[in-house]
Design brief:
Blueprint (H helix, E strand, L loop, with lengths): L29 H5 L9 H19 L4 H8 L3 H13 L3 H27 L3 H18 L9 H13 L2
């Protein structure tokens, strides 16, 4: 039995819908796209603007401008400026960080001398300023985070061993 092809009814099948494929942006690297990476427009201008604002904030702070004044100048919150400055300081190489630390200590010394004279003369406000300067110096030098050592630790260890505490 041979089938006559003229008598077989062919069903019309609708064509599959083709998905809309957007055109690639002009700034897409075709080599990255060919490797299967998702094409993304590059936002270099925003990155550059953000980096320049952060650099400006750090430069102003390094020149002694207050965080509040920098925030007002750049139109951001003071905490944002503090975060930018902290991040910039953490990214500084150790040698440059030591130079900045030395500069800050010299500034504190310059402020401390006249305040100390006033504090020794009995000026209560100057006493507070001197204490604040001393706290800041201790933080810069890492004195507050220094672990106690020497005889205190040995004594505490002996007490625990002897007394079983």
């Amino acid at each position: 039995m041979s089938a006559d092809t003229s008598t077989i009814a062919y069903l019309e099948t609708p064509a599959l819908p083709t998905p809309h494929v957007p055109a690639l942006p002009q700034d897409v690297d075709l080599a990255e796209y060919a490797l299967g990476d998702t094409p993304r427009p590059r936002r270099t201008t925003k990155r550059i603007q953000r980096a320049s604002r952060r650099a400006e904030a750090f430069a102003l702070r390094r020149n002694g401008v207050s965080t509040a004044a920098i925030a007002q100048h750049l139109g951001v919150h003071p905490r944002t400026v503090s975060t930018w400055i902290r991040d910039a300081i953490q990214a500084i190489p150790a040698e440059e960080a030591d130079a900045i630390r030395t500069l800050e200590l010299e500034r504190l010394d310059a402020i401390m001398a006249p305040q100390m004279r006033l504090a020794l003369a009995g000026d209560g406000f100057a006493v507070d300023r001197v204490l604040r300067i001393m706290e800041r110096r201790a933080r810069l030098l890492g004195l507050d985070s220094a672990k106690p050592g020497g005889f205190e630790q040995v004594g505490a260890l002996l007490d625990r061993l002897v007394l079983g505490e």
